[in-house]
Specification:
about 110 residues, alpha+beta, four-stranded antiparallel sheet, 4 helices, elongated
């Protein structure tokens, strides 16, 4: 807890809340189950590198053959969405939205 947080008054349960010091990041989280090559380390890394070129960061999770993408609002949202759909159609991965923004939803293909 920072010194600033300790100076905040506690609520009736003794908890201190961040209040106006915390703002939403406007980032989205997209999860992919990588099907290509059984979700191998190489396949997960290729997915991460491919989406990184479109402005994302992320990490691979070996246990589940999964990739979690962090998609900032500055990323190329329409191209990311198009690639997600294309890869799912090709059987490379299955994807789902973990946490999304209005900008992400607005970038959905018509």
């Amino acid at each position: 807890m920072s010194r600033h947080d300790r100076n905040r008054p506690a609520d009736e349960d003794g908890l201190r809340w961040a209040g106006d010091t915390v703002r939403a990041s406007e980032n989205c989280t997209i999860r992919l189950i990588v099907r290509k090559d059984g979700g191998s380390a190489a396949a997960r890394q290729t997915v991460l590198e491919t989406f990184h070129r479109l402005g994302t960061t992320g990490e691979g999770i070996e246990q589940f053959g999964m990739v979690a993408l962090d998609v900032p609002p500055t990323a190329d949202l329409p191209r990311i969405r198009k690639l997600l759909e294309h890869g799912e159609t090709k059987g490379w991965w299955h994807w789902e939205e973990g946490c999304v923004t209005e900008a992400w939803s607005a970038a959905a293909p018509a």
